[in-house]
């Protein structure tokens, strides 16, 4: 009797595992299913013309060389919406509004070196909407803002240019013997303002 109970319990466990596995498999198939093929407007219009002429779905599929199920979906959509083409406004709506897009553009115009993650945090705190860094990048790309590597330029403003000219004029008229007392060494590079590595703007 104990052996029978153990065997029946094992069968129940296996049955539960198979049931759970089946549910997971259906979930994966549902979420990873490929997008249904979208036929051209001309082809759909041809299907509707045959339908209005009284042809059967099977005959229409044979004539236009598409599956009967596709013919059925096209006809059913025409019956419900009286429309052959795609319905305006279908698909996933934009996560950001026009105002949010303008705010995003304004932040980048002020500081071109600001990253998408920083803009994302600022938008979420100011406007109260949850968006991703990819959404920020897409909106900026749509507005014409692309990530580029900044050109390397020496930090020489108007004041520094004047000082350099003054320094050159000071030592320009020195005699040759003056430079014999100067200790010459190999040049060394020091960055006064951050790194001279790649900077995205």
UniProtKB/TrEMBL annotation:
Domain Transposase Tc1-like residue range list: 105-172
GO molecular function: DNA binding
Record-given protein name: Transposase Tc1-like domain-containing protein
Short name of one Pfam family: HTH_Tnp_Tc3_2
A GO biological process held by the record: DNA integration
Species the sequence originates in: Rotaria magnacalcarata
InterPro entries found in the cross-reference section: Homeodomain-like_sf, RNaseH_sf, Transposase_Tc1-like, WH-like_DNA-bd_sf
Signal peptide per UniProt: none
């Amino acid at each position: 009797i104990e052996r029978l109970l153990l065997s029946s319990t094992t069968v129940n466990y296996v049955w539960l595992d198979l049931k759970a596995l089946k549910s997971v498999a259906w979930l994966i198939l549902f979420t990873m299913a490929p997008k249904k093929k979208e036929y051209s407007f001309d082809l759909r219009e041809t299907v509707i013309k045959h339908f209005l002429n009284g042809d059967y779905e099977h005959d229409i599929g044979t004539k236009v060389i598409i599956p009967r199920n596709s013919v059925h979906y096209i006809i059913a959509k025409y019956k419900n919406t009286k429309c052959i083409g795609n319905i305006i406004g279908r698909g996933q709506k934009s996560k950001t509004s026009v105002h949010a897009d303008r705010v995003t553009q304004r932040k980048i115009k002020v500081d071109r070196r600001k990253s998408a993650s920083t803009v994302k945090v600022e938008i979420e705190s100011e406007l109260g909407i949850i968006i991703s860094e990819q959404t920020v990048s897409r909106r900026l790309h749509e507005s014409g803002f692309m990530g580029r590597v900044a050109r390397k330029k020496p930090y020489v403003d108007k004041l520094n240019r004047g000082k350099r000219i003054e320094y050159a004029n000071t030592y320009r008229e020195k005699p040759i013997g003056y430079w014999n007392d100067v200790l010459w060494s190999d040049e060394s590079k020091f960055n006064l303002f951050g790194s001279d590595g790649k900077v995205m703007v």
